[in-house]
Structure to design on (774 residues):
């Protein structure tokens, strides 16, 4: 077996007689036996506790003497109920704990650890202690020792940060120094050591070779055994309020982010729960691609969403949000359409910081005048006019913020509604309603009044009290919706003001009408969605979410400056981990490089950190060398030393293209590549291609924006939906100048090519794209 200079590599056959190997295998077996015993014990105990819980639930009331006769009896009843509830909840807690332990042991049993460091703490006469690292911890009660340490324990950082020699690690209380005398890695399967490497600082290339050489998977895997030193800095960073991770395609940004989430959940156990972390993904496919990583590490999944899903949630039924992919498709396919340039210019402006400032100015101006309101109507009639509401609003202290003045106004309006409701009770429509009333409501009213002692005799007065009572109920039922709408600030005419603001901007008539027509049809264009929410909340108060403690944003280069500002308002107390690669900027509202800088300006410098990942792990050396040339970053991206075939670039005749793609797919299948992506630039192109290829490739699938997940196999996919994911083989459908010629196309082309792990084939007809490396 090949060996790097600082690695001693042992494998199963070569080393059956090696004493180290035998000792290590004995230890694996000892640990496995213990795990098997613990699993059996926990299964039994969990079963008993479960039976207990069922029994307590079933007989809950048997042990409680219920007596509410007087205060003393009531207190005793409540105390005994409380006691029973406590017993139940203690049992439930034990059960949860037992289940959790069981799951950890089950995760460890086949492969209890992947690494070991021997560490001598300075001044410790006991000498070196062997620390074994795994995806959970295993404590042996008999020896009082940890047989396996969780990879996130403070001491485990030694493994990721150092090679043999002087080392240190931090615990929450102090820093511990010492010497590492050994660093070893293992591949253990079904309790058998398959390989064992003694490594230097970097976690063995051999092990990475093995991991990265495998076929692409439909689900992302955790990288816990091979986390690299630079990635570990991201994972264990505790100080930064804003952590920006920039790195080339395939440098492990997403992987490191997910490991970081797992680390934070472990480190802050009891204070941080999975639902206090939100992870923004680029698209739903990506969401499903990463969904198994945290559970694989024994953690619950964090809140995963896309920005689009967040917008849809916020607009609820008010507007349908036209999605980012439709915007993208328009940008890529509508060049010839009337008004295209106007719309593109408008989109850029609406995503900019300048537009946000314009909104701020507009809102500031409304502080003194110009707020637009809706009249409050009841049964089709205006009961409070918009002019009156405006008058009331501007009569309030102008030093109070608009949002707070609106809150005061709500209180006033609700009081007025109470008055108006009183008047309404006397009106004839109420009598008409009274006649239609269900007889049950009459009897109910009768009973209520009788209980209250309101009836004296069967007199006229009694009849009046009954009418009053029922009229009040009818009227307040009618006013319920009005009150709710007032509390929701529906009387503030946000829509009219937003339209007014748009009219004051210098958009072309065409572009303006494009937006207004959409809004008239209750659709909000993607570029307006964030601006509209910001505008609305600037007036009425921000919907902040203070429960979320960590926000992760993947593919952050695709967010606009405006979106970052908005998210910062929404999650004011969170720490942020932002991952991006400016060279994969593909959306029309973001401007290569400037977004991540703008984001940094939202946090003070002291609490911001930027980490660059320079090594690229996904693709072979040959593919990374090729793709780095597309973006002119040969010096900046360091390929991992894993080799494969050179990328194939093939000029073909138009009539030949489909047959050649099919032939390449078949070759790749013969080479045992199980996930093959044929990447188109747009959804339109991908759909056409899919239809043309289907007769020859019946197992082909088409991935479009509705696709929620993908499996292994052959798929046609537009570039922007392939973001973040990877395939064994990528076939770029047509890299001609006709498809990829503008500056922005370069990032698309780069993104497409960097999805390949093992092989890359690029076809073109006519002239090749100017971005094709020589
Ligand atoms: N330390 C590591 N050990 C093993 N595999 C790794 C490591 N780092 C990254 N990888 C692998 O490299 C591939 C790319 O990782 P990942 O998707 O996290 O990169 P990325 O920087 O987010 O890429 P992109 O920007 O292209 O979406 C994945 O298959 C991942 O498992």
């Amino acid at each position: 077996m090949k060996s790097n200079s600082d690695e001693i590599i042992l494998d199963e056959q070569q080393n059956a007689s090696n004493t180290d190997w035998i000792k290590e295998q004995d230890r694996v077996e000892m640990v496995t036996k213990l795990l098997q015993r613990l699993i059996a014990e926990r299964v039994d105990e969990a079963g008993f506790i479960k039976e207990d819980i069922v029994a307590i639930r079933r007989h809950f009331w048997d042990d409680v003497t219920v007596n509410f006769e007087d205060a003393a009896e009531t207190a005793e009843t409540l105390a005994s109920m409380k006691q029973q509830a406590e017993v139940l909840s203690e049992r439930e807690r034990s059960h949860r704990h037992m289940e959790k332990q069981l799951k950890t042991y089950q995760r460890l049993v086949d492969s209890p650890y992947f690494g070991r460091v021997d560490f001598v703490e300075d001044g410790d006469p006991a000498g070196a202690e062997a620390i074994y690292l795994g995806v959970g911890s295993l404590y042996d009660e008999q020896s009082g020792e940890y047989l396996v340490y969780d990879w996130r324990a403070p001491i485990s950082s030694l493994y990721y940060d150092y090679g043999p020699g002087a080392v240190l690690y931090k615990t929450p209380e102090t820093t511990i120094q010492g010497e590492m005398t050994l660093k070893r890695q293992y591949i253990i399967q079904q309790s058998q050591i398959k390989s064992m490497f003694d490594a230097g600082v970097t976690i063995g290339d051999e092990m990475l070779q093995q991991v990265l050489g495998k076929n692409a998977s439909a689900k992302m895997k955790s990288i816990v055994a091979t986390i690299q030193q630079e990635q570990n800095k991201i994972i264990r960073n505790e100080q930064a309020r804003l952590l920006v991770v920039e790195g080339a395609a395939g440098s492990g940004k997403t992987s490191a982010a997910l490991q970081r989430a797992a680390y934070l959940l472990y480190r802050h156990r009891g204070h941080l729960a999975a639902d206090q972390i939100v992870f923004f993904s680029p698209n739903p496919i990506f969401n499903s691609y990463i969904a198994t990583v945290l559970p694989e590490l024994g953690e619950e999944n964090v809140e995963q969403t896309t920005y689009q899903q967040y917008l849809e949630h916020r607009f609820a039924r008010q507007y349908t949000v036209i999605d980012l992919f439709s915007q993208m498709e328009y940008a890529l396919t509508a060049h010839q359409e009337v008004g295209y340039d106007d719309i593109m210019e408008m989109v850029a402006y609406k995503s900019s910081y300048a537009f946000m400032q314009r909104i701020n100015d507009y809102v500031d101006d409304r502080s003194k005048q110009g707020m637009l309101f809706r009249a409050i109507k009841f049964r089709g009639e205006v009961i409070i006019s918009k002019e009156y509401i405006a008058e009331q609003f501007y009569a309030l202290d102008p030093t109070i913020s608009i949002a707070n003045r609106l809150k005061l106004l709500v209180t006033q309006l609700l009081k007025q509604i109470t008055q108006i409701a009183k008047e309404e009770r006397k009106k004839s429509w109420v009598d008409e309603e009274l006649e239609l009333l269900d007889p049950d409501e009459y009897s109910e009213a009768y009973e209520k009044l009788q209980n209250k002692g309101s009836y004296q005799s069967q007199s006229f007065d009694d009849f009046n009290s009954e009418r009053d009572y029922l009229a009040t109920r009818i009227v307040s039922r009618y006013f319920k919706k009005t009150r709710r709408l007032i509390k929701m600030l529906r009387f503030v005419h946000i829509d009219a003001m937003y339209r007014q603001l748009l009219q004051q901007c210098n958009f072309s008539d065409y572009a303006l009408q494009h937006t207004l027509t959409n809004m008239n049809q209750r659709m909000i264009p993607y570029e307006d969605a964030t601006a509209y929410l910001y505008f609305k909340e600037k007036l009425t108060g921000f919907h902040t979410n203070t429960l979320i403690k960590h926000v992760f944003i993947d593919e952050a280069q695709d967010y606009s400056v405006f979106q970052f500002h908005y998210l910062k308002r929404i999650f004011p107390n969170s720490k942020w981990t932002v991952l991006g690669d400016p060279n994969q900027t593909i959306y029309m509202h973001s401007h290569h490089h400037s977004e991540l800088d703008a984001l940094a300006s939202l946090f003070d410098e002291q609490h911001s950190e930027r980490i660059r990942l320079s090594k690229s792990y996904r693709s072979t050396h040959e593919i990374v060398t090729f793709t780095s040339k597309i973006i002119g970053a040969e010096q900046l991206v360091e390929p991992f030393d894993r080799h494969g075939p050179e990328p194939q670039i093939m000029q073909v005749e138009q009539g030949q293209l489909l047959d050649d793609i099919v032939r390449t797919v078949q070759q790749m299948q013969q080479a045992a590549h199980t996930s093959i992506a044929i990447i188109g630039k747009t959804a339109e192109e991908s759909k056409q291609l899919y239809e043309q290829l289907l007769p020859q490739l019946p197992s082909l699938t088409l991935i479009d924006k509705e696709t929620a997940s993908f499996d292994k196999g052959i798929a046609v996919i537009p570039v922007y939906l392939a973001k973040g994911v990877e395939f064994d083989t990528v076939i770029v459908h047509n890299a001609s100048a006709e498809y990829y010629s503008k500056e922005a196309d370069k990032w698309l082309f780069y993104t497409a090519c960097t999805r390949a792990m093992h092989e890359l084939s690029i076809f073109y007809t006519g002239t090749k794209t100017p971005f094709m490396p020589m």
